[in-house]
Amino acid sequence: MYRTHTCGALRPKNINETVTLSGWVQKSRDLGGMTFIDIRDRYGITQLTFNMETNPVLCEKARQLGREDVVQVRGHVIERSSKNPNMPTGEVEVTVSQLTVLNKSKLPPFTIEDETDGGEEIRMKFRYLDLRRNPLKNNLILRHKLAIETRKYLDNLDFIEIETPYLIKSTPEGARDFIVPSRMHPGEFYALPQSPQTFKQLLMVSGYDRYFQIVRCFRDEDLRADRQPEFTQIDCEMSFVEREDILTMFEGLTKHLFKSLINITLDDFPHMLYDDAIRLYGSDKPDIRFGMQFVELNQVLQNSGFKVFDEAELVVGINVPGASNYSRKQLDQLIDFVKRPQVGAKGLVWVKYNEDGSIKSSVDKFYTPEQLKSCFEIAKGKPGDLLLIMAGETNSTRNALNVLRLEMGDRLELRKKNEFAPLWVIDFPLLEWDEEHQRFHAMHHPFTSPSGNTIEELNDNPSAIKANAYDLVINGIELGGGSIRIHDRTLQEKMFELLGFSQEEAESQFGFLMGAFEYGAPPHGGIAFGLDRVAAVLSGEESIRDFIAFPKNNAGRDVMIDTPSAIAEEQLTELKLKHDKN
Ligand code: ASP
């Protein structure tokens, strides 16, 4: 038997027992006649003691142990003379009588501690060592519990988990597909699913009514901190539902996850129109933990001779509470911040409402103090506040001010890690105009139904049509999104037509789905959550990478197994990706 207890199990009640433990050497200390070794496994750490006087041979053997060696020990549990209240096993230690080295370890390339000295790259290369560290271990345990709680909750409400295929035909969800060549059908390819979208809709046609799946999705996109080429969704679909039914159901799931996993009780989620989110926060995923809503100032600030504002499509600002004491240097820093290419603004105007009621600004030449004070009135500012104003083309100005607002939220420490502000963003536009290709794209995906419009209305002004789509946003992060779907062949055909598909293209790519709609497709809708992201948000983290056991790096590579990588000539030939010279 390798062990009677784990390294996290022993307590005062075990005193006087003889136990066997197995684990990794975390660290060792020699103190005069005694050697102390901490032995670690997934469950915790136990202190072992070796006595030079009573057992010099064994003690000498213990002194030879290196970090991360795997050992088995047998010994006697005793009360510790100096207890460690920070360790669950801190009241006891084991005096060892037998020590077996199960396997030596090379010196690890970084320390296996909560705070490691290893850089990103080396830790990715030795991911199996990085995963020994507590922060990663705790992330994976949280992720596991998240999956369990999701399954429990949905199972209780009659949802059935059904697997859908990974080798499919491309589903357009806005990203590129990963492609898998078929050996048996040379020149033909499968695609890995960007999501099980069409399959879950087909399951509704089949009458499954309430479906979910914790499922891997694949998207060949440029990577960012919160993106991975393969990621996991909690994918859901329901029949005979309207938008409110879906929002209520999955607000319930979200509340359950927060309560059961981090003991946070969430209030009911407010609903915000997409148009309002854009107008007030410059983002379709606003962080509403703090205010600083956008105030549009065209009315007050245009036509006073300041060219930058006069020529702008939009003049818009945020009132930063209590920041009128910002120094010249701090203001210059903000100007540099917005001019960085990532933000892309041309400049920034500041107006201080000093505590004594006076006004000072970077545009004093053009405006009277009364004019500037009226901006604070509109923004509900008060003495002591600072107004930051940007101007230019509407979309890019809003985007830039959104970045600045979040930055100010960070600087003023208003984006608290342990505070959660969820909301539903609703009424997205159905279509998005693509300047480059001069055509419409579906903002969500082509299976999303327009909200309340008839087919005729779709023709008149496509860009004004709203989608019956919704996103769940928490703290500025999109955790999930979905829609009520089209379930009627004619409307789906119309949708493909708007998106620039010819009838033949629509038929060859989606004939199976439109065909299914002709056999009694029920009204249906659904949603998908990013499971990796939910796990990260529950932990107050931004990056999803450390919630995935074996993620890809920023360049989409797995540096541990070294992939993507070349394949053998033979394989290429067999797949007809390269022609045999003979
Ligand atoms: N398939 C969608 C996505 O992956 C989610 C949905 O509409 O249910 O974003």
Written description of the protein model:
The protein has 582 residues and is of the alpha+beta class. The protein is globular. 29% of the residues lie in helices and 24% in strands. The strands form 5 sheets. It has an 8-stranded mixed beta sheet, with helices on both faces. Strands 1-2-3-5-4 form a 5-stranded mixed β-barrel. A 5-stranded antiparallel beta sheet has the order 12-13-16-14-15. It folds into 3 domains: 12-103, OB fold (Dihydrolipoamide Acetyltransferase, E2P); 137-272 and 423-547, Bira Bifunctional Protein, Domain 2 (BirA Bifunctional Protein, domain 2, 2-Layer Sandwich); 290-415, Gyrase A, domain 2. The chain contains 17 helices and 22 strands. It has helices spanning 56-63, 120-125, 127-130, 134-156, 197-205, 243-262, 274-281, 298-301, 307-310, 328-339, 369-378, 394-411, 455-460, 489-498, 503-517, 531-538, 569-574; strands at 18-31, 34-41, 44-51, 70-79, 92-103, 160-161, 179-181, 189-191, 210-218, 230-239, 271-273, 295-296, 314-320, 349-353, 359-361, 386-392, 422-426, 431-434, 439-442, 469-474, 477-484, 524-530. It binds aspartic acid (ASP). Aspartic acid is lined by residues 173, 195, 197, 481-483, 526-528.
